[in-house]
Every structure is written in C-alpha cells, then in structure tokens.
Specification:
Blueprint lengths: L13 E2 L11 E3 L6 E5 L4 E4 L6 E11 L2 E10 L6 H17 L7 E8 L2 E9 L5 E9 L2 E9 L7 H9 L1 E2 L1
Parallel strand pairs: 1-7
Antiparallel strand pairs: 2-3, 3-11, 4-5, 5-6, 6-10, 7-8, 8-9, 9-10
Length: 171
Amino acid sequence: MAAIVSLAGCSKPKPIPARPALPVGWIDYAPAGYGFAVYLPKSPTTFPMPQNSALKESKMWGTPDPPLSFLVGFIRVATEASGSDRERLLKFSNSTAKGFAKPGVSIGAISDVDVRGLPGRRTEFEIQDGRSVVAYYTIKGDRYYSVMVIGPPDQMRQGKAKAFLDSFEIR
C-alpha cells in the first residue's frame, strides 16, 4: 500500500484492514460507472441527492439490516481534487458528520486513514436517536465517497458493521 503523509500532521495514516471475505448471504455491490464496490446484506435503494453548480452528480445508496443501516455516498465534483483541494474535500467529511450528529455532541475519533492507497478520513459520532455512526470518507480525482454504518454503539466495531466498512474499495 502506498505511503501517504497524514493531512493532520506528519504521522502515517492507519490503513483500513484488508478486504474481508464476502459474508454469507451478502452481495458485492458495484454499480456501473461509479468506481466503487462494497459488501451489502442486500441490494440497496438509491437516493438521488440535491445538485448544484459545484457538483456534476451526487447519489446515495442505502439498505437497512436491523439494527444496522448501511449507506454509501457518491459525489462527482466539477474539477479534480488535488493537493490542498484534497484537504478541503476531506474537511468536508467533518461538516457531513456535523450534519448528521446530535446537537451539542462533538464529532469524536476523527482520524486520517489510508483507504487502499488513497487519503481518507474516519469519523465516529452519535446521532439524534442515540445510535452511533462510523464513517470513512475518501476522494479520487473528481469523485468523493462516504461509507457509513449506523447502529447501536456496541455493534459498530464488529460483525456486519466491520465487514461493511472494511469491504469498501475504489475500482
């Protein structure tokens, strides 16, 4: 895996784990033209997202598997991100997290990660109903990705939540 200098400093970002084996009964979801793959418990619903002049396209895919919910977001921006733009877009991950977070709760465990050789950010936070969110954000060229799992705090680092997050890859 390529070495990447952390956006937050000089330490090397922690790589996300190797892609695990496909869980029994799950699918390897890779929608044509979006450049990513992720394991999901079933085919997701597609949610079109609002567009504006800075975005060429944005979309979200999601599926529940109670008590967890799995979401993948995709944004194609008007110009490719590089250098300081990458840092700006990764900072966008913090504002995305703040949009979901419970008011008055700080976004915890923000860290830089290596998402299979790409710069990324990992966040953890609590949402309005008391559930937790663990998310990865990364960019490649003009594409910005977010991968989130939502559920009970005690299930966020194991089993299905971990398999989902660790399965994400850019193709």
